[in-house]
């Protein structure tokens, strides 16, 4: 039992060290987006080319703006939109283009101009090209990763759009054959500072504690 308590104190100390290190050095800004049909303006109701209903499309995206605010990486995973044109037999769900849109007045009832395109036209992830597209091996959809670098933008730059991005006036948009104006979109939002990182650290410490606890019972 004494050995177990010593192990627990070591784990607790490690957790405190991780928390202090993260909270003092982590300066990147994390943003999230929940992509839905309901957030389009107007909301979309996906159907097949014959008018039959098809599964609602949806997705999530995570963005990391670096400390210097000169680059923003992202990962988006989308479901029920055909990334290859052959994941389903119908054409309505085919992905055509995907962008980040932004303006000072963008909200749920309005649309905004394209400020950075990462699939189709315009394509702005080109200085350098960081784009990776991974269609699902089974099912319909895929994952996209990329990076908005300082020189890139659709008639604008990341620096010029930072105010819109950080104030909730930017959204990521996936367009399809059926919905040329966008089938799903989600606004970029910022959680409480460092909360996401602290949650990850807490889970890691908790998992290590459980593993040590099980080992102690075996001993």
Short summary:
This protein has helices at 2-25, 158-166, 195-218; strands spanning 29-35, 58-65, 71-79, 95-102, 114-119, 132-135, 141-149, 170-176, 184-187. The protein is an alpha+beta fold and 219 residues long.
Describe what this molecule looks like in 3D.
It is a single chain. The protein has 219 residues and is of the alpha+beta class. It has two domains: 1-26 and 194-219; 29-193, Immunoglobulin-like, CATH 2.60.40. It has three helices and nine strands, in the order αβββββββαββα. It has helices spanning 2-25, 158-166, 195-218; strands spanning 29-35, 58-65, 71-79, 95-102, 114-119, 132-135, 141-149, 170-176, 184-187. The chain has a five-stranded antiparallel sheet, with no helix packed on it. A hairpin with a 5-residue loop joins strand 2 and strand 3. Helix 1 packs antiparallel against helix 3 (195-218). The longest helix is centred in the N-terminal third of the chain and has 24 residues, at 2-25. It is globular, with a radius of gyration of 21 Å. The chain starts with a helix and ends with a helix. 30% of the residues are buried. The model is unreliable at 2-25, 194-207 and 213-219 (pLDDT under 50).
